[in-house]
Every structure is written in C-alpha cells, then in structure tokens.
Design a protein that fits this description.
Shape: elongated
Number of domains: 1
Strand content: under 5%
Helix content: 55-70%
Length: 40
C-alpha cells in the first residue's frame, strides 16, 4: 500500500487510526466521496 499522500490526507489517516473502530468507519464513509483512493 505505497501511495503518495498530501499532508492533509496524512492527518486524516492518523485521525482515523486514533479513533475507535465504529467512529473511524463512519468517518471513512464520509471521506470516501472526497478521497476514493483513501478507502482502498
């Protein structure tokens, strides 16, 4: 899973990792529309 991520996307990824599973999943669904490649 090697991909170039922007600082903003990196921040988002870290936030998702820190959040609880259910919450992270919900957030992931929201960002799915903005960053489809992120939820790969």
């Amino acid at each position: 899973m090697s991909r170039t991520v922007t600082p903003k996307r990196q921040e988002l990824g870290n936030a998702l990792d820190r959040e609880p599973r259910s919450r992270a999943r919900r957030m992931k669904r929201n960002v799915c529309t903005s960053w489809p490649e992120y939820t790969r």
